[in-house]
Each structure stands twice: as structure tokens, then as C-alpha cells.
Amino acid sequence: MSAPRGRRATRRRLGIWAQVIVLAVICVVWIYPLLWIVSASLKDSLGVFSGGLGLIPDSLHFENYARAWRDADFGLYTVNSVLITLGTVALVVLRCALAGYVIARRNFIGKRAVVAVLVATLFAPQGLTIIPVVELSDLMGLLNSRTGIVLALAGTGHVAAVLLYAGYFSRVPRELEEAAIMDGAGFLRTFFRVMLPLAGPVTATVGVMTFLAAWNNFFLPLVFTFSRPDLRTLSVGMLAFRGTNSTDWSGLAAAGTISLVPLLLVFLALQRYFVEGIAGAVKS
Amino acid sequence: MSSVTRKVPARRRGLAARIWSERWAYAFLLPTLLLFGAYTVWPIISSLYYSMLDWKGLGAERPFVGLDNYREAFGDPLFWKSLGITLTIIAVTVPLRVGLSLLIALVLNNPRLPLARLFRTALFVPAVTTTAIIGVVMGFIFDPAGGPVNQLLLDLGIVDQPVDFLGDPASSLWTVMGVHMWKWFGITLVYWLAALQTIPATVYEAAKTDGAGNWAALRHVTLPLLRPFLIIILLLTAIETMQIFDLVLTMTNGGPFFSTLATEVYIYQQAFANSTPRLGYGAALGVLFGLVTLAFAALQAVGIRYANRARSSR
């Protein structure tokens, strides 16, 4: 009686470990291209070509980073990417929290129309909106500026963020607001002192997802910086670098590493919020 | 609640008074109305008008030409080819991605599987990387002269001559699709894991007390419960796949010989990259592309309604 059960348990444990081994192999293959970029960024140009699949460089060539950072202007591009991303995240969190709050809590004339327009434009592709966005920015004198990129990135889409805030605020008990008003807090104070701090988890999710979208965006900064190479972001700079230095593989790998590492660090630190933000699309 | 609302019944107040009493709500909406209005709503509406102009660059004359741009688009073999390529990418990668990620999600969802979180993280990592950077780097990884993929194939003796993955129109689209699947696989995986989380553990326990084995539980409990999610996940994945601009532009720029010319890349080339930009024609192509996206979104709305009905009838 006990012998077959023991054998079955052993078989099940073997099955689990077989799955673990298969998954481990898949995962190594999966992240290999990323490891290859980091490894290539430390090799000399010849080593990248002849090194094949090996990830360990013969000797470390940090001058690739100096070349990418200084000569290829990736220092400048990093500053641009950081400024544009931070500006966009701040603006999106603020505007979406404000809009989500009043949509959840107030009954104002035109609310249904606002929600209908938001939902109707949920899937507008960038190929449709990009030409008028460029023209409008040109008319406002914002085409060749970081401010213009931030405003366009913050203004395009982010419907899901508004809906996320609205959904969260509609579940907060009304007593909390009423208590704040009893204490003499006005509309603004109630929002900024009571409601917004309560929505911390939503702010984290929205902030992290917006960070990802802004840092990775390519189409918009590409067409906004045609005539201003000094305003390029990392993603646009990478394309330009290949255009001028198509043979400098190790320099390009270093440039790629410079732009990917901050992103991966943010992801690993805040993974939970990334996953929640993406899973939200299915759960709702 | 302000004191005004309590004193006067809402219906009897004038419109102006009602708007005034909610002035803070409008103030809170203002940033979104301005930004979203200027950068999302206005572009969608004005695209319809711009698509009827012969417009050769910012600040240039732009005479009204009616439906000429649309007429040209319908007779433009490259536009049709680009739509065909976009739809091919969707038809090939979406079912593969959704199916394979379901398989992995089912394995990862086992609470007794060691290292499940680590595996999920590893599979998800490409999804957070910058697509444009990946596109450029993949040019090296698939390079015929010294790229690691060709090195591996040569070392293993699978090929005797390096394969020009991205330079050969016969393989370029497949390579782009492969990288695209690799890049975004983690997103679909997280969709499925979220769907699996909605199935309470008690359902499995009940199945087990009824004597169901692992396979029986999967076939008769898990998969039927996941069916409503399948439609949502398929359509979400399809709509995301329509926007493949970053990867294609950086990996192949639509070439060689237009073999990877996705629609958004063609729009970009017409509107911005040509020696004489054609903004009006680009806008017309954008409108047509938007209509295709809208069709998918409409399908999704129907799908969600169906899924909700299936869920509530349980």
C-alpha cells in the first residue's frame, strides 16, 4: 500500500524537477540576448566579432562606455531621457489622479460625455495622431523642445490611468471625505491631504507604467528631434549612432547598456507594480 | 457636499448655478481636458480634414483635394502590402504567443513549483526593455558576419554559410516576428497568470475530492473557466501587435524590398521620411489604419460582453 504511493510521490517530484530544468533552460535562452549586449559592451571591437557565443570578455574595455557617453553624446541623451520621463510621469500622475477623482466622486454636467470620449479613444494608434500632434506642436513653438515632447507624451492616451484612479476612488468610503470636510478642509485639501495619499498603490502602478511608456517611447521623440540632435532621447540616439557608426559594435553595445540598465533596475525594484499594472487590463 | 447643494433641489437650479457648484470638479478636469483634448481628441478629428489636403510639409500650402488621397490609397499596392504584412504579423504571432504563454502560465501557476517567481521575472524582462534599442541590437545578434546566432548555427553545423536573416526578404519578416514574440511574450504571460489567479483554490479542491486527476482538472475545470479570458487576451494582444513601429523601423526600416513594411512604418515614411513629405496622404493612411484598429477594438467590446455573460451565467 505504501510502496506505490511513495513511488507516485517520487514520480511527481521528478516531474516537477523536470519542469524546473526545462524552464531554466528556456529562461537562460530568453535573457541571453540581454546578457550578450552587456558582455559585448566590455569587449574590444574585434572581440565582439570573433567572440561568438561566449559571454566572458578576455579583458575589460570600459573605454567603450567613455566613447558612447562622450563622443556619441549618450550622456546628453541620458539627461534628455531622464528629464522627459520624470516630467511626463509627474504630469500624467497629477492629471489622471485629478480627473479620476472627480469622475469617481462628483456628479457634474458633462461627466458621461467625458468618460465616453476617454473610452472611445482608448485604442487610437500613434500612426493616426502623430501628424496633427506634430503640426500643433509646431504652431505652438514646441516642436523642437523637451517641454513639447513631455506635453505630447503626457497628453496622448493614458486613459487606463484615469480609469484606474476612478475605480479606486469610487471604492473609498465617503465617510473619509465627510470627516475631512467636517474638520474644515476644502475641496483641494481633502484631495491632496486625504484622498491622494490613500491612492498610493494606484499612484505607484500608474507611475511605474508611465515611466516605462515614456522612457521607451520612440516615435514621438524621433519626429520631434529631427532638427535638434541635442534633444534626442536614448532610443532615438541609438538609431542615430548606428547610422553614423555602424561598425562600432562594442560602442553601440555600451550605448544600449547605458539605456537599458536604469530601466531594468527600476523594474527589478518595483516589479510588483509593473505586474499589477499589466494584469489590470485583464482583470477589469 | 457644499451648503448650496443642500438648500436647493438640483432640478430647480439653473444650469449656470449647477456648473458653478461643481466648479472644483471642472478645475480638476482641466489639465486632462487641455492635454488629452489637444494631443488625442483634436488629432483624431483633424486627421479626417488633413487627409483631404495635398499637404507637402509643415507651413506649406495645402489645397483641399477631397477624397483624392483615399482614392490613391485604395490603388496603392504598397499600402495594401503594408496592411497585409501587419495582418500577417498578427495572424502568425498572436495565436502562437497566446497559446505558448498559456502553456507556461499553467506550469508557473503550480504553487509547488520551485523558483516560479524567478522564471516569471526572466520571461518578463524583455517586455520592459526599450524596443528601439532592442531593434538596433538585434541587427548585430542576427548579423551574418559574426553575430552570435550565425556563430551558433555554424558551430553546430546546421548551416555551412551564414544566414542573412534581416537582409533576405525571404527571412526578414520571420525574424522580425520572432523578435517581436520574444520581446512581448511576458505581457501575455502576465495576462494569463492574472486570469488563473481568478480561479479560487477551492475549485481545485472540490475537483480533487471528486477524484479528478491533474489532467482531468485541467481539461474540465481550468480550461473552461479560462475561456472567457481567451477572447480578451487574444484581442488585447492583437491590438498591441498593430503597433510594431519601433521594432520594424530600427531592425529593418521596412526593408529589404518592403518585405517588413508594417503600416505605421509606411505612414511614417510618407509623412516624414520622404524627400518631399506627404502629410495629407500620411493622414489618410493613418485614418484607414485607425479604422482597422477600431474594428479590432469593436471586436473586443463584443468579446468582453460575451465573456461577462459567460462569467455571470455560472
UniProtKB/TrEMBL annotation, chain A:
This protein's UniProt keywords: Cell membrane, Membrane, Transmembrane, Transmembrane helix, Transport
Pfam families in alphabetical order: BPD_transp_1
Membrane-related topology note: Multi-pass membrane protein
Transmembrane spans: 14-38, 82-104, 113-134, 149-169, 190-215, 249-270
Top-level taxon in the UniProt lineage: Bacteria
Places the protein is found: Cell membrane
Keyword Cell membrane: yes
Main location (coarse class): membrane
Keyword NADP appears in the UniProt entry: no
Any one GO cellular component localisation term in the record: plasma membrane
GO biological process: transmembrane transport
Domain ABC transmembrane type-1 span(s) in chain numbering: 78-270
PANTHER family listed in its UniProt record: ABC TRANSPORTER PERMEASE PROTEIN MG189-RELATED, ABC TRANSPORTER PERMEASE PROTEIN MG189-RELATED-RELATED
Family of this protein: Belongs to the binding-protein-dependent transport system permease family.
Protein's name in the database: Carbohydrate ABC transporter permease
UniProtKB/TrEMBL annotation, chain B:
The keyword Cell cycle is annotated on this UniProt entry: no
Signal peptide: none
Residue ranges of every copy of the ABC transmembrane type-1 domain listed in the record: 83-300
One family name in Pfam for this protein: BPD_transp_1
Record field: transmembrane: 24-45, 83-109, 121-142, 184-204, 225-245, 281-304
Coiled-coil residues: none
GO CC field: plasma membrane
CDD domains with a match to the protein in the record: TM_PBP2 (cd06261)
InterPro entries (alphabetical): ABC_transporter_permease, MetI-like, MetI-like_sf
Biological process, per Gene Ontology: transmembrane transport
Localization of this protein: Cell membrane
Keywords for this protein: Cell membrane, Membrane, Transmembrane, Transmembrane helix, Transport
Membrane topology per record: Multi-pass membrane protein
Entry similarity comment: Belongs to the binding-protein-dependent transport system permease family.
Name listed for the protein in its UniProt record: Sugar ABC transporter permease
Native source organism of the sequence: Nonomuraea deserti
